[in-house]
Every structure is written in C-alpha cells, then in structure tokens.
Amino acid sequence: MRFSILLIALALLPMMVIFHGWFFTEQQMPRLRDQAEAVLKQNGIRSAAVNLRYLDLKITGDAPDLRSLESALSGVRDLGPLRLVKDELRILARLRARMEAGRLLLEGWLPDPENLTETRQLFSKLRPDLTLDIESLLAHERVRWPEGEKGPLTADSSLLKPIIEKLRVAPHLDIRREAEKITVAGMVPAGGFRQSLLAALSQCLGTSTLDSSALKESTHTLPAGFVDGSAMGPFVRSFFAKPSPRHFSVSPQGTPHLEAPATHSDESTWLALLRPLSGGQKVDMKLTLYPSEYHFPGFKPTSPVPLETLAVLKDSLTGQGILFEAGSTRISPEDQSRLAGITPLLLIAGPALRLVVGGHPAPEGQAAVEKALALARAEQVVSFLIEQGVPTTDIQAVALDPVPAGTPGAPEQTQSVEILIR
Questions:
Q1: How high is the pLDDT of residue 9?
Q2: Strands 209-218 and 181-189, sheet pairing
Q3: Which fold would CATH assign to domain 15-91?
Q4: DSSP string covering 285-305, please?
C-alpha cells in the first residue's frame, strides 16, 4: 500500500511542479510586478519599467529628486522574496530659472559638480548685472543627461537655451558728471564698445576721476543703435568736455536723455552727433540754456591769476552789464564812468588775465541782425578798455547766444555787454 502511494506521488510530482510553475508565472509574478510598479508610481518615478525574471527584479525610470529615488529603492527592496539585481533609476537632468529683484535663481539637477561651475560661469558672463543664486541647483552621480544632451554645458545646450533666450537684456547706459567725478553705469554688448566709451571719457577728465565699476558688458544683449563706438566717442567728448554737472543716458527702450547747462550751439552740436545713435528715437532734452559756457554754474576761470585776485574781480564784474539803447552801439557817459572805475582792477590782475567781452543779443529780434549788433557793442567796449590801458593780449569780443527772457539762464538785461573772465 505504501509502495502504491509512493508510486502515485512520484507520478503526480511533475504535474505539481508544472502547476506550481504555472501558478507562479500566471498569478504570483504579475502580482509582484504590480506591487513593484505601484511602489515606483507612488514615488513619482516617470517612464518606470519593471522586469521580473522569477525572483530577480530589474527596474528603470526617472525620479523627480534624490529623496524620491531613494524611497522607491527602499520600497522595492521591501517586497518580500524579490531580489533587486539591477537598478537603473535615475534623475533626469533639468534646469529651471526665475528672477527676483535682480537675482537669478537656478534650480534643478545636473550630473557632475563641474556642471555647476560651468553653469555659474556661463550665466555670470551672459548677465553680469544679476546676482546668481544656485543653492537649489544640485549635482549627483544618479543624474542622467536627456537624450541628445551631454556636457560641458554651453549657451546652445538644450537645457539652457530656453532660459538664455528669455534673459536677453536691452543695452542701456547712464553717465553722470558731478563735482570732480564721472560715473558710468549700464549694460553694453561685449566686443569693444565699453573700452572705446571709457577711452573717450578719459579725454574729458581733466582733474576728475572716472568710476566705471557699474558699467557691465554681456554677449547676450539685444540689438541697439547707440552701441557704436565710432559714433558715440565724438558725442561723449563734446558733451562731457565741460566740467559742469551733466547727465546723459540711454534707456532700455533706446531713448537718449540729456540734462546739462548748454548754449544754443551746444544743443545743435549734440543733436547732430546723436542723430546716428538715436535710431530715430526722439531725444529727451532737459537743457538749461546760457549765453556762453562762462555762465555755466560752477564754471572756474583758467586765467593764471591768483585766486584772491580772481575772486575780487568776479565780484566787481558781476551785475556790471553795459546797457545800450535799441539799435545803438554808443556807450553812455554813465557806463563809460563805470568802465573807467573797473579798469584799475583789470590792470592790477596783469597781462595773465584773459577776458571775454560778450554782447547779449535781443532774443526776440532777427537773429543775424541782433548777433551783428551784439558783436559791434562788444567791440566798442573792448576799444574803450584798450583806450584805458587794458592789455590787448588776451581779450576777445564775441556775440553771446540769445536766451529767452524768463528762463533760468537768461541774462538780467538783453541789449547789454558783459565782461567775463576766461
């Protein structure tokens, strides 16, 4: 009997092995595979794939971050009898950016710490005006490059290109002259414009200093008409040649802005020099017009005369305009007496004193006629001073620019002559 039972058991054994194999393959393996896939899905693994051969498990997929990857691995290893023989979970390299008040914040994952350095250097070069924050940009050996991408990172890399295109900056410029300093700020294209601009400004310094620390250059700027060194140089040399406070800027929209004391001839010169740079944009001008540069606020005479003597002379000449009747070039007896009283001071200053005798034309009259009349009046005053013994070495008669009455730079009296120290 026992022998019969043994024979029957031996006969049924292959069938039991076959049934067990079928049951494991058709019932257990799908359940274990579903469990592994569920673990990957719960941890945010994308493109997950589970390959199960009996109890040997292979998994692939892309995790959103390192914590999700490690959690997925831990969950899979806890699945009962399965043996994890091949793990190809990776983090797909990615890069995101956002701007916050002058800061560029980068976040994402890269395969190698060297990629972090490459990224920092690239963005610092493209936008040196921004503060770069890469604390949330991480590197790990588990990170893989997207299909078709590889290091080192460049401006053409598929990871960076969408961000870089949005970071193009409009060139802009701001130059101020105040007291004894010229300050330059802005963003200009790399390639020589910055160097040529600073070279032009250096020719205007005199005793002033030049601060260009806030002038940045980038290879990632939008086109702009004003970044032409050959055209900008002549304008800068003309506009900043005079030491009085002044301001020139070009907005990111390309609008030039001028703010300065000026003469009519200055205004015409600057507009002509700006024409090739403005790209058709209207120039925003806030100019305070004066009869001459000798009237500019803060003008300092260059005559080699002791400062004390210059101070006395300026006080004596201020408000001492020589008035003329309409259409006349005759100096009245009263004004002849006043000129005679000033002459000893001019003689004390000696031949080093350089003078300009300027006639103020009437702004409401015909320009050419008024200018000729103003010059003739100035020449009359010069002739009278020479008769009084004032040296002719360095004294000029000129017609000053007309300035509309009521404006800040207008003279107290038109149709008058003024003696100025150069």
A1: 53
A2: parallel
A3: Alpha-Beta Plaits (3.30.70)
A4: EEEEE-SSGGGSTT-----SS
Inter-residue contact 89 to 58 (CB < 8 Å):
no
For domain 301-421, the question of CATH label 1.10.3720.10 is answered with no
Dihedral over Cα of 106, 111, 114, 119: its sign? negative
Structure tokens at 233: 């140089």
Query: How far is Cα of residue 167 from the mean position of the Cα atoms in its chain?
Result: 13
Burial of 186 (0-12, 13-18, 19+ CB in 10 A): buried
**pTM for the full predicted model:** 0.72
Q: What is the pLDDT of residue 415?
A: 85
Backbone torsion region of residue 372, taken as left when φ is above 0, otherwise alpha when ψ lies between -120 and 50, otherwise beta: alpha
Q: Could you give the CA distance from residue 346 to residue 391 in angstroms, rounded to a whole number?
A: 9
Q: Is the dihedral of CA 344, 349, 354, 360 positive or negative?
A: negative
Q: Kind of pairing, strands 246-250 and 172-178?
A: antiparallel
- With a cut of 70, which residues of the chain have pLDDT below it? 1-29, 392
Which residues are 286's β-sheet partners? Answer: 259
- CATH number for the domain whose boundaries are 172-289: 3.40.1520.20
The pLDDT assigned to 153 comes to 84
Element containing residue 110 per DSSP (H, E): strand 103-110
Q: Where are the alpha helices (DSSP H) in 43-178?
A: 66-77, 113-126, 161-166
